[in-house]
Queue: 4 jobs
Job 1
Amino acid sequence: MQWLNGFLSFWYRGEMRTVRASRLPWHIFLGLYTYALAVATAETGLMEKLTFTEMRKHSDSSASKRSPETVVANGLGMGLALLGGVVILAAISPKHQATLQRKSVYSVSNSKC
């Protein structure tokens, strides 16, 4: 139902901009929540890969502790976690919020013309 409401409000431009502005915080929250879940899924997949790599190493006693696979997977996991943090920080930063409010006030004032 929410999807249909969003679709119709996109095509029907007569909707009040204040209604759109009131939905913006929920849109931001759901977008960031989905992004965080995607990052968590990727991190879980990397952890699973490392677990299977470690299980394979234990069957072979001559394998070293630091294989290239584990170094790449750990580096990728750290990079992914840092990127996720930077993206979320950029989305919730006060500078970004001030710009958003300025744009919404400008849009609301122009809609009365």
Job 2
Amino acid sequence: MPHLNPVDALDLDSELDDDERLIRDTVAAFVRDHVNDHVAGWFEAGTFPTHELAPVIGKLGLFGMHLDGYGCAGASAAAYGVACRELEAADSGLRSFVSVQGSLVMFPIHRYGSEEQKQEWLPRLASGEAVGCFGLTEPDQGSDPGGMRTVAKRDGGGTSRSSEAESGGDWILNGTKMWITNGSIADVAVVWARTEDGIRGFLVPKGTPGFTTSEIHSKLSLRASVTAELHLEDVRLPSSAVLPGVTGLRGPLSCLSEARFGILCGVVGAARTCYLSALDYSTTREQFGRPLAGFQLTQRKLAGMQVGLVHSQLLALRLSKLKDAGRLRPEHVSLGKLANVRAALDIARDARTILGANGITTEYPVLRHANNLETVLTYEGTEEIHTLVVGESVTGHAAYR
């Protein structure tokens, strides 16, 4: 009887085209050659070699790979999904670095920026010469971004109507942003602020007077990732710093949908790594005179992990196809993030129990992934928020308040 392939039991990667399989293999090779032997040490030390990895990742064309022009690869959603999967198979911090750059920084510039903003920033961000961050979450406003306190006013205390917002004059920004990936190392921040006309996006370059950052330490999760707080105190920006193409929450929420797609695909890689670690360990570790894999309770765990992994792979593939067809809705993305992060976390936890005490060390990747997934469960939309998005979609009733 032939064995199921634990990596891809249903041979779903056969649905990929040649370019998508090439991207899969290229990213997997990059992770193998540049990340796998070092990531446990980065996690333990609480560091991430941004400036060493960014040019390599840029050369591979992974930053903003799903965008067209300006140095971007113009790859399919399915290709972006498998790239995120192979990145997160190493660590969620690595995938987060790439998806923040592409989906939260490059995407809004590409979609809503002026031609001058695109020309200035997109080629540099695509190559890895520049690094960006996305400032939406605040210390007191996480799941309800509409309540943000960061404000932008026209110079002199007044504001202008949105039709005049880019016509001249400076903006003054004040506020604080929290839990910002890449925040302290970014060359440019996409900061969302409240104006009289609604929420607007601003490009804030590093070194702008009044713009400072402070790195967040003592994390127990996503340690191989840079996380910071952004402080804006009377930050003066020219009118050319405004993203002219959008006003209101539609702007930042569309960016989050892009990034969440990368998450729902990426966590499949984390789940796969945990499952394979547990499967390998169970076949070599002996207790009571035989391998752990020979016990029924262990097989029950392994079979459950295989089922969860297959479900996640199917969902990621289907949503990738919908995105490429232009039919992916925000509700689909919420469904995917809710289901796949939950499944990945369950797989990581079950895998840890098979490894026993060895599972709590950095010698094995399982608890590192589990700790990271605890953050992935709540960032870019908590499990509860995505539950309510799906609930509203199926009932027609919003239940957020």
Job 3
Amino acid sequence: MSDTTLLERQDRAGTATLTLTRPDAYNSLSLELMQALHAELDRIASDQDVRCVVIRGSGKGFCAGHDLKQMLGAGEEDFYRCTFDTCSRLMQRVVSLPVPVIAQVHGVATAAGCQLVASADLAVAADTARFATPGVNIGLFCSTPMVALSRAIQPKHAMEMLLTGRLVGAERAYEMGLVNRLVPESELESTVDELADTIASKSRKTLQIGKQAFYRQREMSLADAYDHCSEVMVGNMLTEDAQEGIDAFIHKRKPEWKHR
């Protein structure tokens, strides 16, 4: 359990669910909350019992971005630099985590909250959820959210969100590829649980290999990507879980993963 004033963790059947617990501030990412979330992800990275992570928000929404009251109150360049550097490291930790991360979205996900959705490997949203990168409306362009957003959706869709600052409905977010599934809010938790259970039933070692390879090959040329992923598959074939999984498939039995 993390600092329960900021973040709660619950573990179930191989899935760690992290709940942002600043509902009165729409779970805005204060410096302290970002630090707590990063620390919890670091703990999960070395927790061999965890094979999937869910990030969700408490109260009326997922996350309204940075805590602007904290930032305006600080008024110091060093604090701003610390805040944005901490956020950038947090988002990269989501990507580099050895297990998949699912964003469970309800209400609003704006600015750095939208960035968190875009950084997650998968996202499931209530059909009433809304998304935005509204910094342009207050004179603070969403430059760091842009990094994740421009890698999750097509450039022109990202630019429209960034330049207009307008809220995007769940259906449009689904069409743009920002989220994987839309469900009624009453079914959001059960849908995410089912998806997380499916992922958590796999070999942790295999999930780690696949996730790392996915992000690395995406930045390569086609030829380099094939060369890299061919080597990844050779290494994957040599793992105990690959041998176990193939043997289980051939003999029509359930595999017994050792996660190595």
Job 4
Amino acid sequence: MTLTTEDRLAIHELIAQHGHLVDDGALDRLGEVFTGDVAYDLTPMGGAVLNGVEAMRTSALELGDRNPVAHHVTNTVVAEQDGEVTARSKFLGVRRDGSVGSGVYADLLRRTPDGWRIAHRRVSLRREPLKP
């Protein structure tokens, strides 16, 4: 598979859409970003692997006001190797008290009849600066 410019643009838009949907509370639209069988891996942060869009939605609702008030994604790099399409993005989550957390989304993407979707996302936080 060779990624076209249109593919790359669609993937960037897809990754950006996640933050808008979550921040708007449009959790019923997560299927526009993720495959129905997505594995949303929070284990690097001490959480679990959420299997499926419904598990993601339930988890966000359970977090309630502990959810960030804003999600920002930047520095997205899309790659294709051996038929797999991946993206790696930096994110910032702004909490209600103004504190900010930083991390990395590592995504495996799949082209579906409805367009590109994230099939697997691993979420890890950045807690320590570079130590040469």
